[in-house]
Design a protein that fits this description.
Blueprint (H helix, E strand, L loop, with lengths): L9 H14 L1 H20 L4 H4 L12 H29 L10 H38 L14 H33 L6 H7 L4 H30 L12 H9 L1 H4 L1 H16 L9
């Protein structure tokens, strides 16, 4: 095993990731509908109504809200993890290895992946706290305005503080995620690469990986938003910001738009799969 890999080619990496997205577009559509199916069925059954019920902040929580909230989390965030595994398997192994008769390995890998996601969330929270403390100390040393007030009445310095904290947190958190991405990708296909090994293999490519990610993700997000805007304009819909409770027709429209909504996720998985190959994940000793 090489201690680190040579610098990746940004152009080659983007070409490979984009090619995978196009080549496996029909499988992407399949996984997208699998990802949105539980949410759609539970929503149509009315079990999410209490969660999406419009109300002011002063109103009491309606009956059944806790169960509705649990079903929402179960059918979105939790269910997204095994679907995330499927996208990785598609781009790392190919469509012939996408689904298996034995579902247990995918479930166990999803559980391990979920733990890693929780770890990344913890890192994000820690970074946010550190940056907030540093920003507050910096402002205090410069005798800038440090008073806390309502969000709508924040001073320019306070806006700068919050925006800077969020931006720095997201930037460094994603850089850390990229350094650990080989270990995460390996887990989705049943292999094991240690976090330290992943960190070492990506040492010379962190910024290149970040630029590759932005280069493919930003156009994909713009495309997804454009398609959503045109779709809602054609059908005279407001699927996400209407302020009204979702009905059956809304759930059906969201389900039909699943491949578009999931396109940024698929692009991210395709990019991570390319990183895995170019940074030496396939040649790495598994342990």
């Amino acid at each position: 095993m090489n201690p680190q890999c040579s610098p990746i080619s940004i152009r080659t990496n983007l070409k490979e990731a984009s090619s995978c997205l196009w080549r496996f577009k029909w499988k992407h559509i399949l996984i997208s509908y699998i990802a949105f199916l539980p949410f759609t069925l539970v929503g149509i059954s009315g079990l999410l109504d209490a969660f999406f019920l419009p109300r002011s902040s002063l109103e009491q929580v309606p009956d059944g809200y806790n169960f509705s909230f649990f079903m929402f989390i179960l059918t979105t965030y939790f269910w997204a993890v095994p679907c995330f595994v499927l996208w990785h398997r598609l781009y790392l192994l190919g469509p012939e290895h996408l689904l298996r008769r034995k579902i247990w390995p995918i479930l166990t890998r999803s559980f391990v992946l979920f733990l890693k996601v929780l770890m990344m969330i913890g890192i994000c929270i820690l970074l946010a706290v550190i940056f907030a403390i540093l920003m507050s100390l910096f402002i205090s040393l410069l005798n800038l305005n440090t008073t806390f007030s309502d969000l709508l009445e924040l001073s320019d310095y306070e806006y700068l503080r919050y925006v800077s904290t969020i931006s720095l947190t997201l930037f460094f958190a994603y850089l850390i995620f990229l350094r650990f991405s080989l270990a995460i990708s390996a887990r989705t296909i049943g292999k094991r690469i240690g976090m330290a090994t992943s960190w070492r293999l990506t040492k010379t490519n962190t910024l290149r990986m970040f630029f590759c990610y932005l280069t493919i993700l930003l156009p994909i997000m713009a495309l997804s938003m454009g398609v959503l805007f045109v779709y809602q304009a054609l059908f005279e819909l407001d699927l996400f910001f209407s302020g009204e409770i979702l009905n059956r027709e809304t759930y059906v429209h969201i389900f039909l738009l699943a491949p578009v909504l999931c396109l940024p996720i698929a692009a991210s998985c395709s990019q991570c799969a390319s990183f895995y190959r170019h940074c030496g994940g396939e040649e790495c000793s598994q342990y």
